[in-house]
Design a protein that fits this description.
Oligomer: single chain
Low-confidence stretches: none
Order of helices and strands: EEHH
Radius of gyration: 20 Å
Protein name: Antitoxin
Structural class: alpha+beta
Largest sheet: 2 strands, antiparallel
Number of helices: 2
Helix content: 55-70%
Mean pLDDT: 88
Length: about 70
């Protein structure tokens, strides 16, 4: 729902699920832009094996209750 005041947008109302999806997409976009800026500035990234190892470690931590 989009409400106007004197012909100009004043308020947007959306359901909670749509808002959460939008916020999630904005956070993802922000993270992707930061990663791309880092890549363009020459920042070293991680290899596929390094990322895989980090992800497995994070999953193990969650499963063993060491991480929230």
């Amino acid at each position: 729902m989009h409400l106007t005041k004197n012909g100009e947008g004043d308020l947007v109302v959306m359901d909670v699920e749509a808002f959460a999806r939008r916020e999630s997409m904005l956070r993802l976009r922000e993270n992707l832009i930061a990663a791309e800026e880092g890549r363009l500035s020459g920042k070293n990234g991680y290899s596929i094996d390094e990322v895989s190892s980090m992800m497995k470690a994070a999953v193990r931590e969650v499963l063993h209750g060491k991480r929230e």
